[in-house]
Amino acid sequence: MSRPIPSRDYVDHFDPELDHHRAWLLAVLERLVVHEPQDLEEGGPLWRLWSTVPAEAAGAEAEAPTGASDQLYPNPLRGAPCFQQRDSTQLSQLDRTCFSSSCAMRLEALKPATLPGANGDDQFLAVVQCYGDTTDACAQLQALAHYGVTARLDQTADFELIEEQIARGIPVPCGYIYRGHINRLTGSGHWLIVYGHTPTHLLVNDPWGEPDLLSGSTLNANGMGVQLSRQNFGRRWMVKPIGGGVFRHVPCKGWAVVVDGIG
């Protein structure tokens, strides 16, 4: 059994100039935001630190998480579906169906048993193809509507939107630029689904595999249950094209499929 973190002793003596104090704070925040969010609420033992310590001292970009009273569903969401595009029965589509697999995971999370089996995303892909190509956002939205989920493509998304959706029990498909070094993003986009968050990381299922956000490569074929740095993911997610297939980071310019209603 892991030893408890002595939060109350450190709160009174926290020194942001000390490396081990900063490391302690990061560890506390990552654990408590998932398991004991009440300690981060106003009046909780860590509220003073969370609300006054500069974000860089905590190693996080995020704002204070939503209070437990506003969090209607657990964070991370439990039982997030795990569809992988690499096992698609449409062999010609293996490297093109990240969008469909991500939206299929969203649908299955909202309406369990709608897409049964390990290849449930292939069932969703077949519906998408009734409306257009797997890379077409309109086709994805029409396929979701076919199953009673009213959704829209938001091209001004940010981390707050992700947190709001997860608070409603809705995982979020996000499109990001996954190739090229993080300082020079290039190529086309890729989709994954976010089902949880901490002050410093997002919890995701990536249908292609575990991404290396720094180099723009894929580390391995297992992208389920991966933690991605908010800082590095944000630089690939909230972007704007500047020509020649190159992108630059622009806050509040993330691509996400947002649910407005479930019928």
Plain-language structure description:
This protein is of the alpha+beta class and 263 residues long. It has two domains: 7-58, no CATH class; 85-262, Cathepsin B, Chain A. Helices cover 33% and strands 25% of the residues. It is built from nine helices and ten strands. A hairpin with a 5-residue loop joins strand 2 (172-179) and strand 3. Helix 5 crosses helix 6 (120-131) and helix 6 crosses helix 7.
The fold-level CATH name of the largest domain is: Cathepsin B, Chain A
Look at the structure and give the CATH class of the largest domain.
Alpha Beta
Element order: H for helix, E for strand? HHHHHHHEHEEEEEEHEEE
From the coordinates shown, what is the CATH architecture of the largest domain?
Alpha-Beta Complex
How many angstroms does the end-to-end distance come to?
44 Å
How would you state the average pLDDT, rounded? 84
Radius of gyration, CA atoms, in whole angstroms: 19 Å
* Major sheet description: 8 strands, antiparallel
Number of strands: 10
Approximate helicity band:
25-40%
Report the β-strand fraction as a percent range.
25-35%
Q: State the helix count.
A: 9
Poorly predicted tracts of residues: 51-69
CATH superfamily of the largest domain: Cysteine proteinases
* Multimeric status of the protein: single chain
Assign an overall shape.
Answer: globular
Derived structural class:
alpha+beta
How many distinct folded domains?
2
